[in-house]
Specification:
The chain is α+β, with helices and mostly antiparallel strands. The protein has 6 helices and 10 strands. The chain has 2 domains: about 1-125, no CATH class; about 130-215, no CATH class. Helix content is about 30%, strand content about 25%. The strands form 3 sheets. Strands 5-8-9-10-7-6 form a 6-stranded antiparallel β-sheet, with helices on one face. The protein is globular.
Length: about 220
């Protein structure tokens, strides 16, 4: 988005990050299949639709999204061969050399568009993509400005009282853990566990982020 702007539409498959499929495909009506709107929105879908104005379209077959299928062929076939021919054997080397592969690939296979006019919308200066593209959960603080998440207790760090407030709990690798309340962002402190309840159901990626942000003293997230 920073390089080209915000697209008008995203044509995606039915992966869980894009759509929530609450209805089996064999039970869809013909109208639902043609409309491509039988799938509910995920957090990502809500963000791109309501915040960025991007229309999400779901593809029902590999043939419907030929460009990405061809890209997978490139990444799974041509790229590994190129890495081997150039003696690249680890991720660090691959990340450094990848721009050269992209430049060579585009020089050989890129096709000029039919029109030079772009359909991408520039990203506004007021739009913070790092804070927008985050995992989001709604919570309500208690009398002390605290809230719970997967049996963890957090407190919103604010100079003004935030008791009994509806907030959005945001987190990602880029911003860590923050709270959004009345259009303002606040840092969040970790207070501990809620009793002795288990957290085995918490996603591993969330555990890793909790460990990185709050447990750098060697303690382990249970």
């Amino acid at each position: 988005m920073l390089n080209y702007g915000i697209p008008l539409e995203l044509y995606a498959d039915k992966a869980g990050i894009f759509f929530v499929n609450n209805k089996k495909q064999e039970n869809w009506t013909v109208q639902e299949m043609l409309a491509g709107k039988a799938l509910d929105k995920t957090q990502f879908g809500v963000i791109v639709d309501e915040q960025l104005g991007i229309n999400m379209i779901s593809a029902h077959t590999p043939q419907a999204k030929g460009r990405i299928e061809r890209l997978w062929g490139t990444l799974q076939d041509r790229l590994p061969v190129w890495l081997k021919l150039n003696g690249i054997t680890d991720i660090e080397q691959a990340n450094c050399r990848l721009p050269y592969f992209i430049a060579d690939f585009n020089a050989r296979f890129a096709v000029e568009p039919g029109t030079a006019e772009t359909a991408f919308v520039p990203v506004g200066a007021s739009l913070d993509l790092d804070k927008l593209l985050t995992v989001r959960y709604e919570r309500t603080t208690d009398n002390c400005g605290c809230f719970s998440f997967h049996n963890f207790i957090f407190q919103v760090d604010s100079a003004k009282p935030l008791a009994k407030k509806k907030i959005k709990f945001l987190f990602s690798q880029k911003i860590g853990f923050q709270a959004l309340c009345d259009k303002e962002y606040y840092p969040v402190s970790f207070f501990g566990m809620k009793g002795n309840k288990s957290i085995t159901h918490i996603p591993d990626v969330t555990k890793i982020l909790l460990q990185k942000v709050y447990f750098d003293d060697g303690r382990q997230v249970a």
